[in-house]
Amino acid sequence: MAIDTDTARKIARLARIRVEEDRLPALAREFDAILGFVAQLEEVDVEGVEPMTSVTPMRLKRRPDVVTDGNRQAEVLLNAPDAREGFFAVPKVVE
């Protein structure tokens, strides 16, 4: 699919990108090159190829999924403008 300057103008408008009129032909050529590359990728046979997250096989580091209180109550409450009995204190808003 060839991208002309009108299509490039429309794409730029849809993307909310201001492109000067003299830059539209170059932008159309760039879009054309991108679509050509995508067409090349579609020709590659990937049947039976496992998806991967990296070019080098590696296993993610894991830690036990254990619920804790973080042992940081005192540090967190130092940020509070008002703390009482180990909790954030807030003004009463309902009578």
UniProtKB/TrEMBL annotation:
Function: Allows the formation of correctly charged Asn-tRNA(Asn) or Gln-tRNA(Gln) through the transamidation of misacylated Asp-tRNA(Asn) or Glu-tRNA(Gln) in organisms which lack either or both of asparaginyl-tRNA or glutaminyl-tRNA synthetases. The reaction takes place in the presence of glutamine and ATP through an activated phospho-Asp-tRNA(Asn) or phospho-Glu-tRNA(Gln).
Record flagged with keyword Electron transport: no
Gene name of the record: gatC
SUPFAM superfamilies, sorted: Glu-tRNAGln amidotransferase C subunit
InterPro entries in the record: Asp/Glu-ADT_sf_sub_c, GatC
EC number annotated for this UniProt entry: 6.3.5.-
Top enzyme category: ligase
Entry protein name: Aspartyl/glutamyl-tRNA(Asn/Gln) amidotransferase subunit C
Keyword terms of this UniProt record: ATP-binding, Ligase, Nucleotide-binding, Protein biosynthesis, Transferase
GO molecular function: asparaginyl-tRNA synthase (glutamine-hydrolyzing) activity; ATP binding; glutaminyl-tRNA synthase (glutamine-hydrolyzing) activity; transferase activity
Record's catalysed reaction(s): L-aspartyl-tRNA(Asn) + L-glutamine + ATP + H2O = L-asparaginyl-tRNA(Asn) + L-glutamate + ADP + phosphate + 2 H(+); L-glutamyl-tRNA(Gln) + L-glutamine + ATP + H2O = L-glutaminyl-tRNA(Gln) + L-glutamate + ADP + phosphate + H(+)
Family stated for the protein in its record: Belongs to the GatC family.
GO biological process, one term: glutaminyl-tRNAGln biosynthesis via transamidation
Subunit structure: Heterotrimer of A, B and C subunits.
This protein's record includes keyword Nucleotide-binding: yes
Lineage per the UniProt record: Bacteria, Pseudomonadati, Pseudomonadota, Alphaproteobacteria, Rhodobacterales
